[in-house]
Design brief:
Length: about 280
């Protein structure tokens, strides 16, 4: 009987060891097997290069005109490249034309065709200005920069910076954000990623007041901020990042130029039910 008890005990030990080995094997398999939840892609590197353009020359003493462009573009010869290239090229031309004629007249015929043709009008207007005001110091300069902020399997979030100086007290600079479909290159409206605009506005105002150290009862216009129809508003530009939504008020947009840009990020965990995260990642 004692001998049988020992055999029973040994069998029991082996059974438990076997079960333990099976359990460890399952755990190892699960940990090594990609899970759909663990495969959430937050940043997808894209093959691309910077399109650099430099036209004109600026000399602080003798003057001149200068254009510098440095924008990232995908390199693949597919719809992603063709759509983004066409979009960015048009933005570059539009920004040059915005500064080519300060009278507000529409762009001259042909100036909307190529970067070179737009720059030619910009250069011509500068020479006319110098003929009228030969003592005016400095140059006319435009600098445009563009790069990705965040890429995922679904979107490409893009940042486009504009700087221009045409004399005066200070240069004009502002930033724009654009979203492209990561497969087709089609531009997407950021509002399509928002499911509750009212809730978003409330959260942005709360974050804005916290950043500016303002109480909930503080009158924003009385504090020197610019409002739209006496109401708080979302910035014209906000971006989707890995951490959350980045809100960016350009100089002059909601505060005086001297205040500079005002920006802050609201994490996605605070935007559940407000931002459609499933469309981003």
């Amino acid at each position: 009987m004692l001998f049988l008890s020992k055999i029973h005990f040994i069998n029991l030990v082996f059974m438990r060891i076997s079960h333990l080995l099976i359990l460890l094997t399952v755990i190892f398999y699960i940990s090594c097997t990609p899970s759909s939840k663990k495969e959430e892609v937050r940043s997808v590197p894209r093959a691309g290069k910077f399109n650099k353009i430099e036209l004109g020359k600026c000399d602080t003493i003798s003057g001149g005109v200068s254009l510098k462009v440095n924008v990232w573009e995908p390199v693949a010869t597919d719809t992603l490249y063709s759509e983004m290239h066409a979009f960015l090229n048009k933005k570059i031309i539009d920004r040059i034309n915005d500064n080519a004629d300060l009278s507000g007249n529409p762009p001259k015929p042909g100036s909307d065709k190529t970067v070179e043709s737009a720059f030619a009008i910009f250069d011509s207007n500068y020479k006319k200005f110098k003929a009228d005001f030969p003592e005016a110091p400095g140059c006319w300069e435009i600098e445009l920069k563009g790069d990705t902020v965040m890429t995922s399997a679904k979107i490409i979030q893009y940042q486009f910076d504009h700087y221009a100086f045409l004399g005066g007290a200070h240069p004009n600079s502002f930033r724009s954000y654009y979203i492209f479909d990561a497969r087709t290159g089609e531009e997407k409206n950021i509002k399509s990623f928002v499911s509750d605009t009212t809730a978003l506005l409330n959260k942005v105002e709360k974050a804005f007041r916290k950043l500016e150290n303002l109480a909930d009862t503080t009158n924003l216009e009385g504090a020197g901020y610019f409002l739209s129809n006496h109401k708080f508003f979302l910035p014209a530009n906000y971006a989707l990042t890995k951490e959350g939504v980045f809100f960016y008020y350009n100089p002059y947009e909601i505060a005086a130029y001297a205040r500079g840009a005002i920006s802050f990020t609201i994490p996605y965990r605070e935007l559940e039910g407000v931002v459609r995260k499933e469309l981003i990642f």
